[in-house]
Design a protein that fits this description.
This protein has 144 residues and is an alpha/beta fold. It has a single domain, classed as Oxidized Rhodanese, domain 1 (3-Layer(aba) Sandwich), CATH 3.40.250.10. It is 32% helix and 16% strand. It has four helices and seven strands; from the N terminus they run βαβββαβαβαβ. The chain has a five-stranded parallel sheet. Strands 3-7 form a two-stranded antiparallel ribbon. The longest helix is centred in the middle third of the chain and has 17 residues. GO terms for molecular function: protein tyrosine phosphatase activity. Its EC number is 3.1.3.48. InterPro entries: Rhodanese-like_dom, Rhodanese-like_dom_sf. This is Cdc25 phosphatase Ibp1.
Amino acid sequence: MTVPAYLSADDLAKLIRDSSKIPGIDYVVVDVRNEDYRGGHIKGSINVPAHELHLKAPALAKKYEKVPLVIFHCALSQVRGPKSARIYRDAVQDALVTASQDSPLFDQQINVLRGGFNSWLYRFKDTEPELIEAYDASVPRDDF
């Protein structure tokens, strides 16, 4: 298992638009923002605040062991997102120690969304607002 790679917003959007792909089965988007999660998130994503990931990573690895692609992000994907992806990767590596040879975890890809949610919001809020759930323009954000 390598260092988590970056995934572009366009590549993730293509995956989400694909009606044959199901969140939680074909991929999972993990939003690790804390309070800044309020006001909108990527369609189909789950929220696990970064400060909780050390405790929750082993359970996430077990819950999503059959999911081939796990994508992490925060507001900008500069600190919390990449760090969370590494914490999750370490939990997966720990799980692989006792996993059977045919465990799907061996092939799981772990990515970080390039630019994070702020970039996602800027890219899609006007052109494809359906890719953003619970959007609230009144929630303050860092500049993007």
